Amino acid sequence: MLTKKLRILILKHLDEKPRSGYGLIKEIEEHTSWKPSYGSMYPALEHLKEEGLVTFKEEGRKKVYSLTKEGKEAVTEIGKNMSEMFENMRDNMKLMTHMIGFDDKRHDEIMDLFLGAIQRGQMPFKEVMRSTTEMKMEFWNLYKKGLIKKRAKEINKIMDEANMKLKKIKK
Predict the structure, then answer these.
(1) Residue 72 C-beta-side C-alpha neighbours within 13 Å
(2) Distance CA 99, CA 149 (A)
(3) b/e burial code for range 90-107 (CB count within 10 A of at least 16 → b)
(4) Which residues of the chain have pLDDT under 50?
(5) Which of 27, 9, 20 is nearest to 78 (CA)?
(6) Could you tell me the pTM of the whole model?
(7) Pairwise CA distance, residues 38 & 44, whole Å
């Protein structure tokens, strides 16, 4: 089954230039830190070919894929949908950031940085994604066990120390 995420990524990267399946895997991994498997990439390309969105030329032993006219139209439609999705995301995030105490100026600054990077095909924080995700999971584990309130002073001390160390990096 072709996932929506893989479909969008393939079409987006083929819109930049023709690529082999292997080239697409590497390009997607470089931009997102997620590496599609060969077992998902090649069936996805075949599915897109059957839909009339991609075509390929054989160059030696490899196939180099490119978008058809219909594929380019699909990319344009995806772009329109993504713009709408980002606007909805911005509105939802504004509500959430107000709930945690950010003012409009700080929210807009963060969203401009974050969504701007995403729209340029960059993945903010990809180099530290594993460790930040693990930290978030630890917070959820503490929350589920009712330890956030019980150990708030200790948790805040740990976070304050980490924040001070991160601030020193940018000096």
Answers:
(1) 7
(2) 18
(3) eeebeeebeeeebeeeeb
(4) none
(5) 9
(6) 0.59
(7) 10
